[in-house]
Amino acid sequence: MTAHTAIETEAVLLRQDADAVATLTLNRPAARNSLSEALIEALTVELDRLAEDKSIRAVILAANGPVFSAGHDLKEMTAHRADADRGRTYFTDVLGRCSAMMQRIVRLPQPVIGAVEGVATAAGCQLVASCDLAVAGAEARFCTPGVHIGLFCSTPMVALSRNLARKHAMEMLLLGEMVRADDAHRFGLVNRVVAAGEALAEARRMALAIASKSPLTLKTGKRAFYEQLEMGLSRAYDHASQVMVENMLARDAEEGIGAFMEKREPRWQGR
User: Fold this and answer.
1) Contact between residue 38 and residue 9 where contact means Cβ atoms under 8 Å apart
2) Beta carbons of 269 and 252 less than 8 angstroms apart
3) Sign (positive/negative) of CA torsion 257, 214, 160, 197?
4) What does pTM read for this prediction?
5) Rg of the chain over CA atoms, in angstroms?
6) Which residues contact 179 (CB under 8 A, 6 or more apart)?
7) 240 and 146 in contact (C-beta within 8 Å)?
């Protein structure tokens, strides 16, 4: 197993690679892993690296400390109210960069699994919702509490509304109440709830299962999944059919079908 720090000067984000799985760990426990400018930049840089890393087939997003992520760094943001424009330029920039980082998770060729222990609030909850899959420890809690401080969680709303049923998403956004792990599972925010402290282990088990599949198939399927969600029914079927034709013509599909018929393990080539 190898490990390296994405931004070594601040160590706000750690990366560990093992068995074709990369684990990114938020590393600002003293600041409740709030999404500072440095952490947003570190995540952006590392996600871009992962997008080009053909040795990695699945990604886990975890956090050090008792809080998964408390969302945006409000101290950092509030300091800019003293700017000439009361912070408008800064808020626009930092929120735009955070939104772009969240979209990188969705567009990453590899599936991303959130491993959540502790509390995930506001943009931290958005981070979980942006992952393709998520596992929560039994003591994990989720919340979009902006309404309590006069700041509706509008950007977290985008990810939540694409994961949860509308009324569940609105319940979280309008009430701002803490949601327990089992309710987050019922809402569709997380896939599985495991014993406290076991989220990372379960996420790794899932990641290893994913990593055993064809990387081309994973990339093709993930991209098509999100593309078709934005389409009407007829167009979605047309698009999915075209994707499947191209997938059928790929060497990995030929190999996988052949291996199945010959009752042997496939040998993926990623093409």
Assistant:
1) no
2) yes
3) positive
4) 0.92
5) 19
6) 141, 142, 143, 172, 187, 189
7) no
Residue with tokens 């389409």: 231
Q: What are the angstrom distances between the C-alpha of 45 and each of 11, 52, 268? A: 13, 11, 28
What are the average pLDDT values for consecutive 10-residue runs of the chain, which has 271 residues? 44 96 97 96 98 97 97 90 90 95 98 98 98 98 96 95 96 98 98 98 98 95 96 95 91 87 89 87
Rounded CA gap, 216 and 237, in Å? 21
The answer to whether 35 touches 73, Cβ cutoff 8 Å, is: yes
Residue 10 has a pLDDT of 60
Residue pLDDT, tens place only, 199-253:
999 999 999 999 999 999 999 999 999 999 999 999 999 999 999 999 989 888 8
Calpha distance 207→190 (Å, rounded): 15
* Token code pair at residue 255: 């190999």
Structure tokens at 114: 């959130």
Cα(90)–Cα(106) distance, integer angstroms: 25
Hunting for tokens 């947003």 — which residue is that?
Answer: 40
pLDDT score for 254: 86
Residue 65 confidence (pLDDT): 96
Structure tokens at 8: 């070594």
Query: Residue 94: its pLDDT value, please?
Result: 93
Q: Give the torsion sign (CA, 97, 61, 126, 107).
A: positive
Question: What domains, with CATH codes, occur in the chain?
Answer: 2-211 (3.90.226.10), 215-261 (1.10.12.10)
Residue that the structure tokens 């000439």 belong to: 84
- The distance from CA 190 to its chain's CA centroid, rounded to whole angstroms, is 11
